[in-house]
Amino acid sequence: MTEAFTPKNIIVTGGCGFIGSNFVHYVVENHPEVHVTVLDALTYAGSLDNIKGLPEDRVDFVHGNICDAELLDKIVPGHDAIVHYAAESHNDNSIADPEPFLKTNVEGTFRLLESVRKFGIRYHHISTDEVYGDLALDDPARFTESTPYHPSSPYSSTKASSDLLVRAWTRTYGLHTTISNCSNNYGPFQHVEKFIPRQITNILSGIRPKLYGNGLNVRDWIHTDDHSSAVWTILTQGRLGETYLIGADGEKNNLDVLKLILKQMGQPEDAFDHVKDRPGHDRRYAIDSTKLRTELGWKPQHTNFESGLDKTIEWYTNHQEWWEKTKAATEKRYKAQGQ
């Protein structure tokens, strides 16, 4: 068993984004001895509203880009770990314009690794199950830590690149790192371009939801709170140089998820339109998180998807002022892409 790591001052990159901000909330609520510095460029996907109200003596905010080496030289000293969430993450956007994905996901990770090397601190890298490509719908297999990489979109290929950089820097320079690859997250603070919040906010806005292709593509859903607890477990207990897959056995196809949203929001289950499928759309993702559960004793708490979805619908219903300002621009962009 690896000796437990007890961080006191951590940097969370992308801490104003969806998954990153939920992690910041998790740390503040569950680990009162830890101070968090949020580093975020505040792109369209990040908002200070996501960390509003957190205690100022526990959370500092730095507005900046992870590609800015001079900035990293200023803020990294005095911290004992970086938890790296910052990423361009939306597949449709990566297909329309891959360049920001290369800049943030590849160059940004390189800059952080160089900073970690310079100042000798711990580093945890947040990645995605999409680096493994996809599985056949009728295949009983699930992704494991030894599944070969086979990314299929500009987004997933840049995340795969960043994972490989972490492994290379760890082996070459002896960095103290861990990596996690997680399945699809859902929960509060998720941008309305993503599948579940897009459907919820469409219904709340009186817009008919849209479904790619036949909707039989399968995603493995996990509540963002469970992702946060898993990341904390890996950061503090994980073996250095190791990768852990995070999943909660939440396989559902997109059609069933949309029908469930419609049903829970009092709509007919067929009140949606089919649209042309996304190019190269991955068929199925599925995570085997046995290593994380057996080695580190982690387990998910939000195992009832219907209940988690119900709470997510309630959050978007009660926080319309949070998403309304981005909704129109998002739908305009989708329309331009024919979706």
Automatic annotation (TrEMBL):
<dbReference type="InterPro" id="IPR005888">
    <property type="entry name" value="dTDP_Gluc_deHydtase"/>
</dbReference>
<dbReference type="InterPro" id="IPR016040">
    <property type="entry name" value="NAD(P)-bd_dom"/>
</dbReference>
<dbReference type="GO" id="GO:0008460">
    <property type="term" value="F:dTDP-glucose 4,6-dehydratase activity"/>
</dbReference>
<protein>
    <recommendedName>
        <fullName>dTDP-glucose 4,6-dehydratase</fullName>
        <ecNumber>4.2.1.46</ecNumber>
    </recommendedName>
</protein>
<dbReference type="Pfam" id="PF16363">
    <property type="entry name" value="GDP_Man_Dehyd"/>
</dbReference>
<dbReference type="InterPro" id="IPR036291">
    <property type="entry name" value="NAD(P)-bd_dom_sf"/>
</dbReference>
<feature type="domain" description="NAD(P)-binding">
    <location>
        <begin position="11"/>
        <end position="311"/>
    </location>
</feature>
<keyword id="KW-0520">NAD</keyword>
<keyword id="KW-0456">Lyase</keyword>
<dbReference type="GO" id="GO:0009225">
    <property type="term" value="P:nucleotide-sugar metabolic process"/>
</dbReference>
<comment type="similarity">
    <text>Belongs to the NAD(P)-dependent epimerase/dehydratase family. dTDP-glucose dehydratase subfamily.</text>
</comment>
